[in-house]
Structure to design on (798 residues):
């Protein structure tokens, strides 16, 4: 048995970083990874802009102006946002201006209308201003040629807004990793089918598929295969070319129907490891088939869920360069009691908030999925633990 | 001017909670809110299940068994997962069993194959077992009729997996709130258009639209309107019936082109408030038109972004009952210097991690959007602040 970290290392070495890019519409780019630096095609703002409603003036003309000693200027025109005043503000002159409008040539500041008499032909100023005080300079946000967003940036809403503001409508991003899912097991039937004795409904395929969706990745397909090594081999041979990563569930233990060992031989795939020193989900199998990493998770739902976090997410992070896909580790104060010790490292589902972590009241068995609902982390319990007590500081892997 | 909290209260009172439901396919239900309790249609597991590969036996038959004093039992059959053994395990008998297979009648535990001689006709046991030790009881996870998921649950991947495991393929959820977006301003042109002097590209529509998408809500439409009160009035009259919430940007200050005041009169809409005591984005306007809350954000990008968090998200939370939409407040240690004080409460974009919060190095002006990229919170600075220093404990609103 190897450690989780060794398994991740073996898998990561075989996980090629996705270099292919695609140009997609800007709004579709949300959450995706920039494939190139985005440089500004123009200054932002593209012109000196008024930050308020008032009068564009030369600051020196307002010297000494106050409520009791107003300065009077001639109003030579008006400019609203979206328009341009073609003239020039000379000494003793003002232009009525609205927020967002270009500040006319000659003016070096804008007096707030509330500090004037709102005059139309002539205006009285009640405030003395300094040059460029109320003045959004051209290029204040960025200048043409500046790198706005670096290659590798995960596009958030502010990045989308920033690119839109620079006039862009398409974005060049790395393509998403393609992940295929196959559940195995003669006992597993699809939800909606008529139940028969000995059968269970397929929760793993939906659990893992939905988990990928939570991470922003739609599985390219979700399939099921019976416990027949030849069938599974054929399926993988046919479909592996369509994906960057294959995740299977079930068939990895030591029973007669644990077909994945045979499948690895039949494909043939290169086996990386079998079994990791962890509870639940120890009998996980890692392999590579034609450059596609294959992670064969335990059929126990929580074992599958746990190893998805521990093994699949780091591979997705390696493929995309998106560190967020790896999950974040924090420490937290344990609020509860968990009296089960053990020689093997154990991951326990939990709920983390503000530095504290709780666990569901019961039902920690690896076959039990329902108590995972609402959990947002796993507690990483070291080997040879004597259990956990309230107040213990624990390591937590956030989902 | 009223406070943020007063504005939220005024808006929330007018925000109807969405009661309409829709049945959608299970995988589409991820992130949606359950409209009814989900009760288990069957026991889970639906039969007593073997947790391992070995032999189903009566525990009492193993009494005293050890490596040096094996107990020998007759193997009367075999059962794999997905099949059912029709007979009964009697005294002195065993059934070869695989993980996940139903434990045959008569047996009350399963001995791990590694603790036997793997016998086919007869098997030697090297371990003494207790009844129900290696035995997943029928209904161990849940029993038929148990409430699996409560109405109001936000469906995460574990919930989707749990419902799939109960055989379900559709889920009854509340419909999503329908949000419409309109940006205003004669100076605003759509990304991709040819730039002309005095014009800027529309960042707000994309910023807010993408922010909604980040929260799992696609805007139903994203429109633009020129600074013409009659046109905007007509647009809202025509489109308001299609949405639960209308968000606009621009036109809310005191200038001649701040059309939203006229629009509220012309519709007519009921004005709830104008201006909140906050920087940036003070001149925000709240109204209700035909039962649809209308939130008119400032045209300054960061003002719009900030008030989206402060005002729009609580309304979405009120409409959906989804507390997560509100954003979470935490305290954090400030890592940096922000020397600008002020009499008005201020929100500062920042990056929060593990109890610490940083701010972008510069460019805090409300018209500047690019420095919001990568931020994940806002720092809530109280009125009459003298600025912030490294080590100050600050209130933070997480995005």
């Amino acid at each position: 048995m190897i450690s989780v970290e060794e398994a991740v290392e073996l898998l990561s070495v075989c996980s090629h970083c996705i270099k292919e890019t695609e140009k997609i519409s800007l709004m579709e780019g949300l959450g995706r990874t920039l494939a190139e630096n985005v440089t500004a095609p123009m200054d932002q703002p593209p012109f000196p802009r008024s930050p308020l409603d008032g009068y564009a003036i030369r600051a020196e003309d307002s010297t000494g102006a106050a409520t009791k000693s107003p300065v009077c200027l001639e109003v030579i025109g008006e400019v609203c946002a979206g328009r341009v005043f073609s003239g020039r503000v000379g000494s003793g002159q003002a232009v009525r201006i609205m927020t967002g409008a270009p500040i006319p040539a000659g003016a070096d500041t804008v007096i707030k209308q509330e500090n004037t008499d709102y005059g139309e032909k002539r205006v009285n100023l009640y405030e003395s201003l300094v040059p460029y005080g109320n003045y959004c300079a051209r290029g204040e946000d960025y200048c043409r040629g500046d790198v706005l967003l670096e290659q590798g940036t995960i596009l958030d809403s502010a990045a989308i807004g920033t690119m839109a503001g620079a006039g862009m409508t398409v974005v060049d991003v790395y393509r998403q990793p393609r992940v295929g899912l196959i559940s195995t097991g003669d006992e597993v039937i699809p939800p909606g089918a008529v139940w028969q004795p000995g059968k269970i409904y397929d929760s793993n395929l939906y659990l893992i598929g939905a988990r990928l969706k939570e991470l922003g990745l739609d599985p390219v397909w979700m399939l099921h295969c019976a416990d027949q090594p030849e069938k599974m081999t054929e399926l993988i041979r046919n479909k592996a070319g369509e994906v960057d990563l294959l995740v299977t569930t079930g068939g990895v233990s030591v029973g007669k129907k644990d077909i994945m060992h045979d499948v690895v031989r039949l494909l043939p795939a290169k086996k990386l490891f079998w079994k990791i020193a962890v509870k639940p989900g120890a009998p996980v199998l890692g392999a590579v088939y034609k450059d596609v990493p294959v992670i064969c998770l335990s059929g126990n739902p929580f074992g599958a869920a746990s190893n998805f976090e521990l093994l699949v997410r780091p591979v997705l992070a390696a493929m995309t360069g998106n560190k967020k896909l790896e999950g974040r580790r924090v420490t937290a104060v344990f609020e509860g009691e968990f009296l089960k010790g053990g020689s093997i490292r154990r991951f326990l589902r939990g709920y983390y908030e503000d530095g504290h972590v709780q666990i569901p009241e019961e039902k920690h068995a690896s076959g039990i999925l329902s108590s995972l609902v609402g959990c947002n982390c796993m507690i990483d319990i070291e080997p040879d633990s004597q259990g956990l007590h309230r107040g213990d500081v624990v390591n937590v892997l956030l989902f």
